[in-house]
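Handoff note, outgoing to incoming analyst
You'll be picking up this chain. Sequence as last confirmed:
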Amino acid sequence: MLGPLRLGSPLIHTGRPSPQAYAAAPGTLYFGVPTVWHRLAREPEHARSLSRARLLVSGSAPLPATVFAAIRDLTGHEIVERYGMTETLITLSARADGPRRPGHVGTTLRGVTTRVVDGDGHELPRDGSSIGVLHVRGPMLGDGYHGNPTATAASWSDGGWFITGDIAAIEPDGTHRIVGRESTDLIKSGGYRIGAGEIENVLLDHPAVDEVAVVGVPDDDLGQRIVAHVVGAAADPGELIDWVGERLSAHKRPREVRIVPSLPRNAMGKVQKTQLG
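Most recent structure output, in case you need it:
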């Protein structure tokens, strides 16, 4: 909101972020969380009306590659993904005048430095596949949490780094891919560190899957086992497990697929994985 207001641009709040409301809003820049874009992709007549826009922007959670492709085909726009937090403001973004890669949130803004570290605090290579906790540093960082020195000490580390709690990988060219939250999206199964988002994207490619959330649940043998919660009346659990196994390494296959009528979401449309077990 602050950017347009600073430049004197009008703002339109759609209220409930439905495909109909987005189609009716006469904007030039449209912002939405992945849930909004997913629902627009399922209603082509409303999605096509956004072809008049200048930019479509997604944030708050990783955007599935299938949704990116669907919106591109319907509107002619490739969604701009960017990344930020309340504590950091925007730190990473695809460029409005540059290439956009599905599933990636772009490169650092001017003055921002990033790194990805493992559980022991060691910096991981920028090879596009090593995943760890994303740390950011830059002039836009907050100083801490007001009146909460314990939380501040847990999130701000030596050298001015802010520990985001998000799991990411950095490509050799500096492009970032956000896998998810460390608390809910990093699954440690059988000695492997697995990003839930990678499995979710593969499952979303299956025609019978409408929505999906992958979590790790406690397991005496594996530490955690991979469980996929799938929205899709025609989905077959065994077929979906095989689908993932044919496209990813064997240890990334869900051990269980649960067909559910819906996924728990908050007011912004984010899936509340803590409510899934």
